[in-house]
Specification:
Blueprint (H helix, E strand, L loop, with lengths): L14 H18 L9 E3 L1 H5 L3 H12 L3 E3 L2 H14 L8 E7 L4 E7 L2 E8 L3 H8 L7 H16 L2 H7 L3 E5 L1 H14 L4 E3 H12 L14 H4 L2 H14 L4 E4 L4 H13 L4 H12 L4 H22 L6 H11 L11 H11 L7 H12 L7 H4 L8 H17 L12 E5 L2 E5 L4 H4 L1 H16 L3 E5 L1
Parallel strand pairs: 1-2, 3-6, 6-8, 10-11
Antiparallel strand pairs: 3-4, 4-5, 7-8, 9-10
Helix pairs in contact: 1-3, 4-12, 5-6, 5-11, 6-11, 8-9, 8-11, 9-11, 14-15, 14-19, 15-17, 15-19, 16-17, 17-19, 19-21
Length: 461
């Protein structure tokens, strides 16, 4: 339905585009209402990233679909595309390869070896955006094509050298634009499954013989593709020129399959997010032994209260686990306000496997794992995870961090926790608090902090 075409000049989704999208999502929702949430993943790409009124539209979209929609970053989109295309190759593939995908409003370029992406970029050029800007009302001319190609080259120029330095042996392309040009190339030039440099030049000549996008039907393009084909062709042409591509192999796989493979990995405990968190702990020199102690205690507390506090939110345990592992990444920047530094890193880094909403939630957990935790601070929280659920996760992480403040193993520590709405009762072994007076003092202080967020903490032995 070319959702990106529904953005106005100020990057707001028009009412008409919203209506079309909601009707489409509602039809999908009717088919998917019996599918468990753990077996389904819906992602939003460039238009969801770009639309200024997406916060108002997203809840309506999720309600129509009946499932959460994850808005993913451009680089995460590129990673999933690469994963998809690579799964279509042999399992022992170890070639240097370049993968390109031209969407409606963005173009993803990925260079890697085998199944491992090394360079990942998402550029703000696509078949819809360039067609609207340079081929208004479907009018085609040599001048318009030259300007569109130049605009695409200007975007690609910012990253082309690092790709050329990396090098590759094979180029693969996916998406509707690539497939459409590949089909036209087979009809006009007899080349099957590939777009060659010479073939592309011949297609360009044939496109420029036409004066309107409706005339492109004569070249074998689908009627739905003709309207945005000139803009997409300009991107392909620019990629060939700046990246010195000789030919592109056409792949039938794209983002959709990448999302499916990624979801399958999660179901098989091969979650890309786990690898990302482990990489972050190494990159920012996290004290892993301490982080794992905090993680173990946080998950122990979670498992005791999950039926009362987190029923219907299966991903919350993972979020708490990851937050415990990375809660100190901000220490590398500065000890003062390290929780705020860590939150910023998590909210703004490119994190493979994570959606924007998940990064926001992870950042919030790290920001509020210490110091102030008040209703005023919580007003700034804005993510798909309900605020009450986020607050409960924060409580568990704060308690886990507090209990391990000495940064040593505490073999005698055994905590029983019971909750009811905003009341929290924790029980320690007999005489344990008397043997650890500093922890008892910390708990007294924490009780006051939790009161600011509307929680009541009760401690006993």
């Amino acid at each position: 339905m070319r959702f990106g075409g529904g953005l106005d000049a100020n990057s707001y989704l028009t009412p008409q585009a919203q209506k079309r999208a909601l009707n489409c999502l509602k039809r999908f929702g009717e088919r998917l209402h019996n599918v468990p949430a753990t077996n389904l993943r819906a992602v939003g790409t460039n238009t969801f990233r770009k639309a200024k009124n997406i916060r108002q539209f997203l809840p309506e979209a999720e309600n129509s679909l009946g499932h959460t929609i994850e808005v993913i970053t451009g680089r995460e989109e590129a990673r999933l595309i690469y994963e998809s295309v690579c799964y279509g190759l042999s399992s022992d593939n170890a070639e240097n390869q370049l993968v390109v995908d031209i969407g409606g409003g963005s173009t993803e370029i990925i260079a890697g070896i085998g199944h491992s992406p090394h360079l990942v970029e998402s550029l703000y050029i696509g078949c819809v955006s360039l067609s609207k800007a340079y081929f208004p009302n479907g009018r085609i001319s040599q001048e318009r094509m030259n300007r569109a190609e130049q605009a695409a080259q200007l975007e690609i120029r910012a990253v082309h050298k690092q790709y050329l330095d990396h090098g590759w042996e094979k180029t693969l392309g996916c998406s509707g634009t690539i497939r459409a040009i590949g089909t036209a190339n087979e009809i006009l030039n007899g080349e099957s499954g590939v777009i060659s440099r010479d073939g592309l030049k011949k297609i360009r000549k044939e496109i420029l013989k036409r004066k309107h996008t409706s005339d492109l039907l004569e070249l074998g393009f689908d009627v739905d593709r003709c309207e945005v084909l000139p803009g997409g062709f300009a991107v392909v042409s620019a990629l060939f020129e700046l990246l010195e591509i000789e030919s592109i192999e056409v792949s039938d796989l794209a983002l959709r399959e990448g999302v499916m493979y990624d979801l399958l990995g999660r179901l098989r405990n091969e979650d890309a997010r786990e690898s990302t968190v482990q990489s972050l702990t190494k990159q920012w020199s996290v004290d892993r032994a301490h982080a794992q102690r905090v993680q173990a205690t946080a998950l122990n507390l979670f498992d005791q209260v999950k039926n009362n506090w987190f029923k219907g939110f299966p991903e919350t345990r993972n979020l708490l686990s990851w937050a415990a592992l990375v809660h100190e990444i901000g220490l590398t920047i500065a000890h003062a306000k390290y929780h705020e530094h860590g939150a910023y890193l998590l909210e703004n880094s490119d994190m493979a496997g994570f959606s924007r909403s998940e990064q926001t939630a992870l950042g919030a957990l790290v920001r509020w794992h210490r110091r102030k935790f008040s209703k005023t601070a919580l007003r700034a929280y804005n993510s798909q995870l309900p605020k009450r659920i986020m607050c409960r996760l924060c409580v568990l992480l704060r308690l886990a961090v507090l209990l391990h403040r000495p940064r040593t193993d505490r073999p005698g520590l055994s905590v029983v926790i019971k909750v009811k709405k905003k009341s929290i009762h924790i029980t320690f072994p007999p005489d344990w608090l008397n043997q650890h007076p500093l922890t008892r003092a910390d708990l007294i202080q924490e009780k006051l902090c939790l009161q600011e967020a509307g929680f009541q903490l009760f401690v006993s032995t």
